Backbone:
């Protein structure tokens, strides 16, 4: 699928708006500087001391910042969409200058497919960074597509006549972790999720996974997570490493489906050159689902947060692995637009299978792409990514880095 003329016009329009916003901001800053110089000459008593400036900067870092937004977007799942919401960042203890800033993006999206979504991802820090609480809240009522389970179904099932159905999905995931040493964290996971399918097509009605698990599934999981973390800023790392292993059991709390999920994640961030924000970011991720796993909770590969360019949910099976290498380049320039801009380029490979052996580079999904970054708050970006894959491509608009 190629980006059509309307999509090209949209990208040109967005670039023009950003350039105009940057030039207007720079013009306003120049006027303000001239006014301050005139004011200081008229009344020297108003000139701030260095101590006052340092105090104001400290207070500015501790205050809550809320950036509202309304923006168009596009993705393979939603097609054209309009998103609105806000990005909030704050500190949970204003007296602690070493505490990392917490961030909470909240987004409401409607799309040209008739879908609507609410999502919020929490990254919060407490107790001198010794306690981290991550959480996800999402509700999706969308025109979804089910290709079936496995590599061949994802690649060859006719789209969209044999795949379309309506899905209502809800998830509340809560993951607090405690710092137990200088670099190690230990915590637990609670995950509640539910899927309700309707307007099911004939292909899906005859699918063995759908026949086994039916149109409605509710799952509750409890698990443990151990992680190693030396990243300088987890939401957008310039240097350091992260590794985690988690195990979640969905049979402890009584439910219809009895299954377990084992997940491995490794990320490495390598600075390039002397300037901040120029980094090689590496990511290896594996997910293995065991036993009675419903079709909505199998392992997926291809999303806005891994190998971008494949439709979310198109490729699913019990086991997935993927590896990504991404170069992130922060721009340094004179204008406000340039100072807040950056670009990325990446290449990746995803694999999936019903057993571990099949998922290691047998059923392969190659991927590559480029992206643009605009910094809305310090170290917090809006990102626009375009990725290509096997018989597929996609354009994404999102907050936070992919990993």
Residues:
């Amino acid at each position: 699928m190629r980006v059509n003329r309307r999509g090209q016009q949209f990208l040109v329009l967005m670039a023009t708006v950003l350039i105009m916003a940057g030039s207007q901001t720079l013009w306003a800053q120049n006027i303000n500087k001239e006014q301050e110089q005139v004011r200081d000459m008229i009344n020297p008593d108003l000139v701030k001391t260095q101590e006052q400036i340092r105090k104001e900067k400290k207070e500015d870092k501790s205050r809550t910042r809320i950036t509202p937004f309304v923006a168009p977007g596009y993705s393979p799942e939603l097609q054209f969409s309009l998103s609105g919401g806000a990005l909030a960042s704050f500190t949970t203890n204003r007296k602690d200058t070493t505490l990392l800033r917490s961030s909470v993006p909240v987004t409401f999206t409607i799309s040209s497919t008739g879908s609507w979504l609410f999502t919020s991802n929490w990254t919060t820090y407490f107790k001198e960074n010794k306690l981290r609480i991550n959480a996800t809240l999402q509700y999706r009522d969308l025109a979804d597509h089910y290709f079936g389970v496995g590599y061949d179904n994802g690649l060859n099932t006719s789209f969209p006549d044999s795949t379309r159905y309506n899905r209502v999905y809800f998830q509340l995931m809560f993951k607090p972790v405690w710092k137990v040493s200088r670099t190690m964290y230990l915590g637990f996971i609670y995950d509640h999720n539910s899927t309700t399918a309707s307007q099911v097509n004939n292909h899906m009605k005859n699918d063995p996974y759908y026949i086994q698990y039916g149109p409605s599934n509710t799952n509750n999981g409890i698990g443990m997570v151990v992680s190693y973390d030396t990243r300088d800023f987890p939401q957008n790392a310039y240097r350091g490493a992260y590794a985690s292993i988690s195990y979640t059991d969905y049979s402890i709390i009584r439910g219809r489906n009895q299954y377990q999920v084992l997940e491995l994640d490794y990320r490495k961030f390598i600075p390039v050159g002397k300037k901040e924000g120029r980094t090689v970011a590496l990511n290896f991720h594996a997910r293995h689902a065991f036993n009675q796993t419903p079709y909505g909770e199998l392992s997926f590969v291809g999303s806005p947060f891994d190998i971008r360019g494949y439709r979310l949910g198109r490729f699913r099976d019990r086991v997935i692995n993927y590896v990504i290498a991404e170069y992130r380049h922060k721009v340094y320039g004179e204008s406000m637009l340039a100072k807040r801009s950056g670009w990325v380029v990446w290449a990746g490979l995803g694999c999936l299978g019903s057993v571990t052996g099949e998922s290691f580079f047998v059923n392969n999904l190659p991927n590559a792409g480029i992206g643009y970054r605009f910094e809305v708050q310090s170290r917090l970006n809006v990102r626009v990514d375009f990725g290509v894959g096997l018989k597929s491509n996609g354009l994404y608009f999102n907050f936070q880095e992919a990993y």
Q: What stands out?
A: The helical segments are 5-42, 50-62, 151-156, 202-205, 208-213, 336-339.
